Amino acid sequence: MQSSSPQIRLVAMDVDGTLTDGMVTIHTGGEEQQTFSTKDGAGIKLLPGVGIMPVIISGRSSPATAQRAEELGIDEVVQGVEDKAEAFEKICEYFGVKLEEAAFIGDDLSDLPAMLLAGYSAAPSDAAPEVRAAATFTSDLPGGAGAVRQSIEDMLKRMGVWQDILESLGLPGTPA
What we know:
Helix content is 35%, strand content 15%.
């Protein structure tokens, strides 16, 4: 496959406000509920097929996040992280991925240091203004509503592999 921009080998994603709308419902018994977009899940599932490892890096710890990661086949999940940039660097180093070969998708100020290290970064439309300003790509969709899916598509198009994905799915090509 040809690449017209840096080859991304790893995509790290924040959870609250990125993979979800940022809302957390806590039931009377203390059980937590988060809502994830199936559209984002469909985009994430495309990554391994083109040699890209999906990763979750979250500032909070949540059983719902672990369950969603398992459903999507995301093996590398780091939760309860205070310094996402440090976690991002360590994950990249562990897997032998250069920072310019990694992407980070986030929505808030705690994501910004990791995003600035990445070769590609993306943000939902409702991300903090500073995050949107620094992102390689800003989705026109909010967090938890397909922004991750749209960001993955943009990244794959920039890499020049989107057409290959469509063909592998037996779909006709679309204009760039």
